[in-house]
Amino acid sequence: MDNNWLELTDKVVAITGAVGGMGTKFCEEFAKQGAKIALIDMIDDKTEEQAKKLSIKYGVETLAVKCNTTSESEVDAAVKKVIKKFNKIDILVNTAAILRFSPFEDLRLDEWQAAINVNLTGYFLMSQRFGRIMIEQKHGTMVHISTIAALYPETYSGAYSTTKAAINMMSKQMAAEWGQYGIRSNCVLPCLVKTPLSKNFYSDPEVEKGRERLVASRRIGTLDDIANTVLFMASDRSSYTNGGEVTVDGGLNTMISDMIPKPGGRRQYAINHH
Questions:
Q1: How far is Cα 83 from Cα 80, in angstroms, rounded to an integer?
Q2: What is the pLDDT along the chain (274 residues), one digit of tens a residue?
Q3: What helix, strand, coil percent values describe the chain, rounded to 5?
Q4: Would residue 160 show up in a list of annotated catalytic residues for this protein?
Q5: What domains can you pick out in the chain, each with its CATH number?
Q6: Which one of the listed residues 152, 160, 181, 202 is annotated catalytic?
């Protein structure tokens, strides 16, 4: 396959949560493709370090931007820095998110609001501000990291599922309103993927085996699985996909019926009653 099949060379990509587990991976994979990358994160020193590393390793232009995506003024300043440096924006990848575990009856208002601020408002502000520029340009692509938990509630995870479900709808609304300007907005919905955020779930081998049994592909996903999908959705190779939700879960969402027990096991039951 042509190494430039995705045609991302010299595309300007802004990635939020750029030094988080997923964000770091996305930045590297876009850099491998020759894209110009704006790394947006709250962690100043680490963002600068990662930007320099990518620039040296892959010979691409990078920009480190310290920004709290929940702050309107900081988002405005960040967008101005990106446009001043690169003169355009081709792709926005919204990655920054938080997860706070809590039974719903014990969820504090400040925890609820923190999740909404980071997971939803941050996505909104970044999308709106970069979206205005994309409207002027008459082109642009947005990829928002959501989750299967937006469709099936992640119990005892506070406001996480609620905020991610809202992201899915926000993405559809932006696609519906901005598609006429050449802008695409899509969500990527991972689940059962090993990330720095989920690594504790897999410290027990039995837990990992139990999770694998729930997945049609019988394996746990990797950051590569997510990154490959994000790059494809960001590229013009997916140019007729707009307002979509792409699941990256190994077929977990297809396995609900398979989880319902039958006497002797579902396969054996079918054999016995054939």
A1: 5
A2: 456 899 999 999 999 999 998 999 999 999 999 999 999 999 989 999 999 999 999 999 999 999 999 999 999 999 999 999 999 999 999 998 888 899 999 999 999 999 999 999 999 999 999 999 999 999 999 999 999 989 999 999 999 999 999 999 999 999 999 999 999 999 999 988 888 777 777 888 888 898 988 888 999 989 999 999 999 999 999 999 999 999 999 988 888 887 778 788 778 877 787 7
A3: 50, 15, 35
A4: yes
A5: 12-201+220-254 (3.40.50.720)
A6: 160
